[in-house]
Amino acid sequence: MEETVKPFSKLYNLTKRAEKVGISDEDVLKEIFIDKIIPNKYQPRYEFDDDKIIELADSIKQNGLLQSITVRELDNGFYELIAGERRLRALRYLRLETTKAIVKELTDEQMATLALIENIQREELSPIEEAYAYQKLLEINNITQEELAKSLGKTQATVANKIRLLKLCPKVIDAISTKRITERHGRAMVKLDHTVQENILHQILTQNLNVIQTEKRVANYLDIKENNSKINSLNSNYDAQKIVSKFLKEISKLENQYGINLEKEEEEEMSSITLKIKIPRYKERK
Question: Angle at CA 106, nearest 5°, toward 101 and 110?
């Protein structure tokens, strides 16, 4: 019977390899043309500091490339980058034609997992980029947050808190990505509707609110929302005309019980209904 490898096992093995994306027995170190290398479609980083790329290029020019980029060979003669986006950008900045690269044989799933883990472990991702990377790993490997956290040596709370950031509206996500607000500012707003998030974001930016002040604003809003919800819930069951009808039914019962006819007058206004009942002090004799 063929043994099935669980997704978590595969991820764990790749995590071990990603601790150092270097050459192993089954890999090949090969001189390849730089213009034949295409970007990694699973690259979690969206922002690259041009000044740091230039600094890295100057270092490569002076000292050479200390760690080769990692790629996998495609069927069309091109290579897909697995790890080393900044190094590749620096090489292109230097307008070099070729570079030595570590060529690995990986499936799409393995390549995506290895690329994402390698970036996470370098701790160069923004909170939003890291959140997207975690989400992608969960989808690709079909594992739980607990399994992912264990395989990366992180707590489940860390993984969950990062992924929760993806519930934020685009404007808040952009503000975190561009470092106009912190990750903690963002986490404080996760429970809010997107429209309210944008409102709170505006307050943070215009009033220079710190995290504690932001958390208080959010808590106040949620308290008000809860109170309004309770009031609305009560109002949704309230019907003045039904109350009047119930009163009249009870009065009708009393009339039958005592054999009397009471004078009733009902006046309706915009804000209320007035019910007047005239009860004789003594019962008339027939």
Answer: 120
Q: Has 85 been annotated as catalytic?
A: yes
Q: How many CB atoms lie within 10 A of CB 255?
A: 13
- Please answer whether residues 65 and 99 qualify as being in contact, where contact means their C-beta atoms are separated by less than 8 angstroms: yes
Neighbouring C-beta atoms of residue 275, cutoff 10 Å: 14
| Residue 237: how many other CB atoms lie within 10 Å | 7
Distances (CA, A) of 219 to 166, 189, 200, 205, 215: 20, 10, 12, 18, 6
Q: Are 181 and 38 in contact (CB under 8 A)?
A: no
Amino acid at 270: M
Q: Which residue has the higher pLDDT, 286 or 68?
A: 68
Query: Do the Cβ atoms of 142 and 69 come closer than 8 Å?
Result: no
- pLDDT tens profile 7-41: 444 554 555 544 444 445 566 788 999 999 988 87
Say how far apart CA 259 and CA 255 lie, in whole Å. Answer: 5
* Stated pTM of the model: 0.59
Catalytic one among 80, 85, 118, 147? 85
